[in-house]
Amino acid sequence: MKNNRLMGKLFSSPYIVWAVIFILVPLGMVFYYGLTDKTGAFTLENVTAIMTAEHAKALWISLGLSLISTVICFFLAYPLAMILANMNVNQHSFIVLIFILPMWMNFLLRTLAWQTLLEKTGVINSILSFLHLPVLNIINTPYAIILGMVYNFLPFMVLPIYNSLVKIDANVVNAAKDLGANSIQTFFKITLPLSIPGIISGITMVFIPALTTFVISKLLGGSKILLIGNVIEEEFTQAGNWHLGSGLSIVLMIFIIINMAVSAIFDKDGEGSFL
Amino acid sequence: MNKELINLVDISKSYDGEMVLDELNLNIHENEFLTLLGPSGCGKTTTLRILGGFVTPDMGRVIFDGQDITSLPPNKRQLNTVFQKYALFSHMNIAENIAFGLKIKNKPKTYIDDKIKYALKLVNLEGFEKRMPDSLSGGQQQRIAIARAIVNEPKVLLLDEPLGALDLKLRQDMQYELIRLKNELGITFIYVTHDQEEALTMSDTIVVMNQGYIQQVGTPETIYNEPENAFVADFIGDSNIIDAVMLEDKLVSILGTKFGCVDTGFGRNKPVDVVIRPEDVELVKPEEGTLHGTVTHLIFKGVHYEMEVMAGGFEWLVHSTGMFPGGTKVGIKVDPFNIPILNKPASEDEEATAIEE
Amino acid sequence: MIKITAKKIYIFLIFVFLYAPIATLMALSFNASRTRAKWGGFTLKWYVSLFENREIMQALWNTLFIALLSSLTAVIIGTVACIAIQKMGKRKRALMMGITNIPMLNADIVTGISLMLLFISFGIKFGMGTILLAHITFNIPYVILCVMPRMKQINPSTYEAALDLGASPAHAFFKVVFPDLFPGVLSGFLMAFTMSLDDFIITHFTKGAGVDTLSTKIYTEVKKGIKPEMYALSTIIFVTVLLLLLLINKAPKEKIK
């Protein structure tokens, strides 16, 4: 028994040390820098800076766009997950791979490709004008950013929902029908509630990355639309103002923590998994 | 016999090109405890699911109380199903599970509450309203599944191997519970199982199935004592199934030796099967027996001794309260009354496939 | 009937949506004209000049090297961690799993800047080393996520049986436990490798001036105009992975995961 405990300590120490140094301490530093000024004195001004006009605007736009994208992703993903879940069992891993496959094409290039598709003289507009249909003018607008977010994060919403749907015992659905429920009643009373862990997982995996992205807005929004992610990124790489950048990041982390708390409430067993 | 409630007419069903049911015909009566019995893959569960409406037959009709319900969806049928792994709604508590069907029918709240109390009392789980399914044991979940089905007052209850996951003692208790329930509720039970002892214990009628065909329909006693073919004989209880030749009425040649029997009408010099139960084989002194042989194995089974005897080139299975050690030379005698003669399978329809041991 | 067609149309539309940019990129890799907007005729020259472009090749090498090394390291640390976590009491386990989830639930940008601040504060020079440390950090949770379920499925009796038959703990582990864990370890490795290969944000903050991965290289080229060789390279990578996937699917079914 003593041997076991010693082994336990030996085995867990590399990871514990790593986690402390590279996960906990860095987070601590963000808080440290965010709550101090250049002289090292405690201050809240880096955090309250979120309320200045330009920062608040960036945050507001980010929240709006990411919420819209999350909702769109949900409504696109759920029917898709349902269709996939009802397909042949043998095709399960193949389906998962089909959705992961685009991830092997570089994230930036994938997003950049939408520029080509969406440009004034881009591919989509060429096709549209060929068919004598009105052209789209969404590049460098918030719509393009939403498109980019939905495009990049859709698989992250589909897979957890798919996983939780597949886990539902077919006989549970049959039981509901047996007891008199029609298809709609069965869906809302049985299928939907039982898929909630997957939905929560999906929302987590889409909302936070969407809220904090700066690449998508840079590539598809031109220089005109600044999200909170862009603001923070610029503070760090261009302005060198780590205190302000960290302070603003603390605000972001508040959203992240709220998200995690909501996750924990709805998905106690950690059932809704990405894998 | 009670009046006919359900008629399955010429039901056929294939999956992936394989025929699972082939022109199945079956009549089920009111207040009957009918068991579909057979090995895995025989089609019994498919038949049950066709009755429940979860599977549509390729051909044939399902008549319920005079009405053709073949294409009626499950939620519109007056049957309820108890599923194999209970299929309780894990996100609802016990009361909500039981009330589910009643709420769909928009029954008033007081009615529902009364029904829940009544159902829980019926299955001996009073007070369990607020519990969650996952906190219950297998046997308790099983009873809740039954409660959930019967509150809807179906005319027929379908049970798909409901006791499979329970341990022996619990299974036996539940078997008596189910019989009691059926009598108290006065409804038809259609039960699916591969366990022949279960079928013999609970049923009014047993339907033995194999490979999509009905092999025999009868009471437990008939099925056990008068199997119609070698499959049924082999599936129910142990038996010795031996090639034989029917020489003439009341005389059969088994393993080259003449035995008297009581069956007539099989013709002369016709190849047949004989089925002799192990408890019907008498072991006597070699000179007193019709056949001679040697005991090859001996096992004490508590209730009796089980022995294998090699005689006439066939390994006989014998159950006896008398003990004969291995190596003993013995004689075999069988009362003519205990030698049922069966026709050899004439077509694929009756082909007996012995269970893989 | 209508239902089935509607479903097929829906899947097809989503499929088109997902793969439209990829098809575009592949088409562009054959575009003789440098600009994205115009089609200048079919050519294979970018595929040739790709291998002569020293910067891109260096970035490719860096990317592969970082992905491979960080994934392997993450696999070792992560698997060992799983063994330890498995032995822990409930509360400690919940704590460790909570910490493990942080990089995954946290926004990449926060992880990136936090590591950047760490390296700056301790005076660590930015470069290959810092990138590796960062990648290992976000890879370990994925490994743990893949190996833990496998760990829970394993029958502990097999390890004890090996000890009972005379094996030393190390021998028992490598001959009995590890082969059982292997599918989880493999998927953890593949997951980490994929994440590392495609990462941009965290690499962006932890790389410093000298080193570039494919992602960061592309980012620097966004303003100037992406070199067509990049499209060619991405097409090659994509097609390679596609072929691998088809091969794995057609091959005799071995239970992975």
Portion of residues within helices of chain B: 10-25%
- CATH topology (fold) name of the largest domain in chain B: Rossmann fold
Number of extended strands of chain B = 20
Strand residues, percent of chain B: 25-35%
Overall geometry of chain A comes to: globular
Work out the helix count of chain B: 8
Strands of the widest sheet of chain B, in order across it, are 6-7-8-3-9-10
Oligomerization status of the protein chains: heterotrimer
CATH architectural grouping of the largest domain in chain A? Orthogonal Bundle
Any idea what the radius of gyration of chain A is? 23 Å
- CATH class bucket of the largest domain in chain A: Mainly Alpha
Report the total helices of chain A: 13
Provide the CATH top-level class of the largest domain in chain B.
Alpha Beta
- Compute the CA-based radius of gyration of chain B: 24 Å
End-to-end separation of chain B: 38 Å
Can you tell me about this structure?
The complex is a heterotrimer of chains A (275), B (357) and C (257). In chain A, 45% of the residues are buried. Chain A is 74% helix and 0% strand. With 275 residues, chain A is an all-alpha fold. The two termini of chain A are 35 Å apart. By secondary structure, chain B is an alpha+beta fold. Chain B has a six-stranded mixed β-sheet, sandwiched between helices. The relative contact order of chain B is 0.12. Residues 347-357 of chain B have low confidence and may be disordered. Chain C has a domain at 54-226: MetI-like (MetI-like fold), CATH 1.10.3720. Chain C is built from eleven helices and no strands. The longest helix of chain C is centred in the N-terminal third of the chain and has 34 residues, at 54-87. Chain C has 257 residues and is mainly alpha-helical. Chain C is globular. In chain C, helix 2 crosses helix 11 (228-250) and helix 6 (128-153) crosses helix 8. The chains are: A mainly alpha (275), B alpha+beta (357), C mainly alpha (257). Chains in contact: A-B, A-C. At the A-C interface, helix 1, helix 3, helix 4, helix 5 and helix 7 of A face helix 1, helix 3, helix 4, helix 5 and helix 6 of C.
